[in-house]
Design goal:
50% of the residues lie in helices and 12% in strands. It has 23 helices and 18 strands. Strands 9, 10, 11, 12, 13, 14, 15, 16, 17 and 18 form a ten-stranded mixed beta sheet that branches. Strand 14 and strand 15 form a beta hairpin. It starts with a helix and ends with a helix. It binds adenosine-5'-diphosphate (ADP) and magnesium ion (MG). Adenosine-5'-diphosphate binds at residues 212, 214, 216, 283, 296-299, 345-347, 469-470.
Length: 729
């Protein structure tokens, strides 16, 4: 019986004990990167000349020379076999939001009747997995199912259990990207090129610009037994029904609160495993909602940081089971409390220092800071709709604009100091900018405190906030692959910097001095980017109106937000920066619409089942009990008295009927709506139909289910309630 199951799982959950964690004897600094074939191991396991070549590939972007592949593979095999490794896999990031792997053993025939461990260079460098089972948006014709995975040497190989993991890119037979890594790497190359050229105005020694990413991963933990009693959580990662718990986050007592022991052990466990895999974990704390937590490593080069986030998400899910938890990465697992995001702290740094650092000591430093800040804003402004598309998904759309997360409008918070600084540069006397003289140069900038922006000057409601030496892109979804946001942002900034350089050079060609030219153009752009700067409350209703007046993209409908990828200015940006072609963009959009549809379709199906097979039977039974009670009352009491006694129950019986009929009627309406939508050919129109006709019914029906939860006998309710799911003991 359902009711028995609920009490059984709740008591199992409440009795569960913390799981001991095996803490290594060494210090974290000693076991850090233990299972990664990093530079130290390359030095140890590779011949000197091969090691030097590998460093050149990793540090300077030199081409990986296939002639050394065999020697690299041999070194990796030796190291891996010392760790007991028997298998290897190419590890890639298809357009499914997860990672993919296909394991092969090292063993080969030795042709003497036995076996031998072998790992040749060609197996390290390239594989041909069948691409037909991965989303490709129609790029690949059915008769040519081949896809290639190719090693990305800038992301080191690592070992999990008995398997050597080789990070790879994934492309189609015809060369189009079928993953997130290819366009990400191209975007990083584009921003390096564009930013280096501009950075050289200020410092000719700059030869390389690196994009950094520091992600903060939010997540929920739910006890495993409770999770397993919630088919909606199992199938969709979120609860599709459930009335608010009396206590949730209103006391603000969870945020930064003390961490329950079971959870602390879990955190310790995932951090040890992450550190061993070279992920530099640093921060852990409770988040705002009950059972919500956060983990953040130190920032790294963006390509590596993206891989590490993907790896971390899989570690988090795997290790959770060992501790009797399930880790929920969904953006909105519970209604009525905060959802989860993944803040992407982004910055640019050169081989000589940081670029977005708080205004520095010299005027040149300050002007450089202003240029990079303003051009970043220009990229974000020009492509604000596209950036929103880059973080949009069926799941993240629940979180954006829900009074807990940034609205579905991209704007940037700069804070007082930087806003004042830009205003100053825009308005100050031209003569103040005689940059040429070593002696008399006076930029006359307001003196800035060492610590540019302290925590009081933080705006938590902004989707793209400047936080001292970086921008924090807060609208990214907790479940998403950061690559989607990062490749778009870096490409947009690359485009802005490229145009900046062209315009400055044009003035220089006309005889302007370099500094005057820079100043002229940056002033032009300071005026231009004003609409994207917003320091106020992003949750406010007024902001939505103001943003629309400013011409910012205010669309909230996920499937039509994806259209931004195919806007002419987006295609132009991606093509001119050599990141993606129109064909690739169109193919990716097909996948986005298809994924959107499937997510809502699965939610709608499981929700319909839960309503009809779990909730309605229990409710009907309870209602019959009430009816039975009323008729018995009538049979033993005189009418007037019976009416009085049965009054409340009669009201309840009626209310239950109202809710029930709404639910049943609308579940059938929802099924019909799905049928109509499923017949639509175009992926876009199908997704729109799911958005317009199916998704709203999930919400309106849920209201009635949640009401019933407060009416029906607690003992009879089949699904674990919010108050049980949300408070780990
Ligand atoms: P908060 O929650 O206050 O925003 P956290 O310490 O939780 O800060 O996380 C901040 C993240 O930003 C960390 O990953 C940190 O390494 C990263 N970070 C710090 N400086 C930079 C930078 N210059 N570029 C990119 N990321 C950075
Ligand atoms: Mg943060």
């Amino acid at each position: 019986m359902a009711e028995k199951l609920r009490f059984q799982v709740v008591s199992e959950a409440f009795k569960r004990q913390p799981v001991e964690v095996k803490v290594p004897a060494e210090r974290p600094s000693e076991y850090f990167s233990k299972y990664v074939f990093d530079k130290q191991k390359m030095y140890k396991y590779l011949p000197a000349k091969v090691y030097r070549k590998m460093r050149d590939v990793i540090e300077n972007g030199a081409v990986f020379d296939r002639t050394i592949a065999d020697e690299v593979a041999e070194g990796i095999k030796k190291w891996a076999m010392e760790l007991g490794v028997t298998h290897y896999t190419h590890w890639f990031q298809p357009l499914t939001e997860g990672t993919a792997e296909k394991h092969d053993g090292f063993v080969e025939h030795d042709w003497k009747g036995g076996m031998v461990e072998e790992f040749e260079g060609k197996l390290l460098v390239q594989q041909e997995p069948d691409a037909s089972s991965f989303p490709n948006g129609g790029i690949r014709s059915t008769f040519e199912a081949r896809g290639y995975s190719a090693w990305d040497p800038t992301s080191p190989v690592f070992v999990i259990g008995d398997t050597l993991m080789i990070p790879t890119i994934f492309i189609s037979y015809t060369g189009e990207a079928l993953d997130y890594k290819v366009p990400l790497k191209k975007a990083l190359y584009a921003v390096d090129k564009a930013a280096t050229a501009v950075a050289q105005y200020f410092n000719p020694d700059v030869t390389k610009v690196i994009s950094n990413l520091g992600w903060e991963q939010e997540y929920f933990l739910v006890d495993e037994s409770l999770y397993l009693a919630r088919p909606d959580l199992i199938m969709t990662g979120r609860t599709l029904m459930g009335h608010d718990s009396a206590k949730n986050q209103q006391m603000d007592d969870h945020y930064f609160g003390s961490i329950p022991e079971r959870v602390e052990n879990y955190m310790r466990d995932i951090e040890i495993q992450a550190l061993e895999l070279g992920i530099p974990c640093k921060t852990r704390h409770n988040e705002v909602a009950p059972n919500q937590f956060e983990l953040a490593p130190i920032f790294e080069e963006t390509n590596l940081a993206v891989d590490h986030n993907m790896l971390m998400m899989s570690i988090m899910k795997r290790v959770a089971r060992k501790h009797g938890f399930r880790c929920l990465l969904h953006e909105k697992p519970f209604k009525g409390i905060n959802g989860s995001g993944k803040h992407n702290n982004w910055s640019l740094a050169t081989n000589t220092g940081v670029l977005l650092h708080a205004p520095g000591k010299t005027p040149e430093d300050n002007l450089r800071f202003v240029v990079f800040t303003v051009e970043t804003l220009k990229g974000v402004y020009d492509h604000n709709g596209l950036l929103k598309a880059s973080i949009m998904s069926a799941t993240n759309s629940h979180r954006l604009g829900a009074h807990e997360a940034p609205p579905a409008i991209i704007s940037s918070f700069l804070g007082r100091t930087v806003t004042d600084l830009l205003e100053h540069v825009e308005n100050c006397d031209d003569n103040a900018f005689t940059m040429s003289g070593k002696t008399s140069y006076q930029l006359n900038l307001p003196s800035l405190p060492e610590l540019l922006i302290d925590n009081t000057d933080r705006n938590r409601t902004s989707p793209f906030a400047f936080t001292g030496n970086r921008f924090e892109f807060r609208a990214v979804g907790s479940e998403a692959n950061c690559a989607s946001a990062m490749l778009t942002l870096n490409t947009a900034v690359a485009e802005a910097l490229t145009s900046f350089k062209q315009r400055v050079d044009a003035l220089i060609d006309k005889g302007e001095s370099k500094n005057t030219a820079i100043l002229k153009i940056v002033r032009e752009d300071i005026k231009y980017v004003k609409p994207i700067i917003f320091n106020g409350n992003g949750y406010g209703e007024e902001w939505k109106q103001e943003a629309a007046r400013r011409g910012l993209d205010c669309d909230t409908c996920a499937p039509s937000i994806f259209d931004r990828y195919l806007d002419e200015e987006s295609v132009k940006m991606f093509e001119s920066m050599n990141v993606m072609t129109r064909k690739e963009l169109a193919a990716r959009n097909e996948i986005k619409w298809e994924t959107y549809t499937k997510k809502i379709q699965i939610e709608s199906r499981i929700f319909g089942d839960l309503c009809l097979n779990h909730i309605i039977p229990v409710v009907t039974k309870y209602q019959s009990m009430l009816i039975d009670n009323v008729s018995k009352v009538i049979s033993i009491f005189p009418k007037e008295k019976a009416d009085k006694i049965s009054k409340e129950n009669l009201i309840l019986i009626e209310r239950i009927s109202d809710h029930e009929s709404f639910i049943i009627e609308n579940v059938h309406k929802m099924i019909e709506a799905r049928k109509v939508a499923n017949r639509i050919e175009s992926e876009r129109e199908k997704a729109m139909a799911y958005h317009d006709t199916v998704a709203p019914l999930l919400e309106s029906i849920r209201y009635h289910v949640d009401k019933l939860e407060t009416i029906v006998d607690d003992e009879a309710w089949p699904l674990p309630k919010y108050r049980e799911l949300l408070f780990i003991r």
